[in-house]
Amino acid sequence: MRIARFLAAAVLLAPVTGFAADTDVTIVIRDHKFEPAEVKVPAGKKVKLVIDNQDATAEEFESHDLNREKVIPGKSRGSVLVGPLKPGKYAFFGEFHEATAKGVIVAE
């Protein structure tokens, strides 16, 4: 019985590795803007977007096109996994500073 509980707990605590990104891309948030504002990624590949928020305040990376949103606290990093993407443009924005934090991912 103990072994069965141990195995069940080990399965629940094991890291999920179903999404291994083919490419990592870093996007910096600085002065409530995304840098670069246009990010090119390979079409048909899984991509890990590493969001490096260098501002003191939080920002929410959001994309309706990618169906993703994630709050990145100030002075920290977070990741957003996307793809594989079809060729095209995928808009994203910072929900907390929509007037300035805008960008696009171009899959080619």
Entry summary:
The protein has 108 residues and is mainly beta. The chain is 11% helix and 48% strand.
> What share of the residues does DSSP label as strand, in percent?
over 45%
Series of secondary-structure elements, N-terminal to C-terminal: HEEEEEEEEE
CATH architecture: Sandwich
Number of helices, where a helix is a run of at least 4 consecutive DSSP H or I residues: 1
Major sheet strand order: 3-9-8-5-6
Describe what this molecule looks like in 3D.
By secondary structure, the chain is mainly beta. About 10% of the residues lie in helices and about 50% in strands. It has one domain: Sandwich (Immunoglobulin-like). The strands form two sheets. Strands 3-9-8-5-6 form a five-stranded mixed β-sheet, with no helix packed on it. It has a four-stranded mixed β-sheet with strand order 2-1-4-7, with no helix packed on it. The longest helix has 12 residues, at about 1-15. The N and C termini lie far apart (about 55 Å). About 25% of the residues are buried.
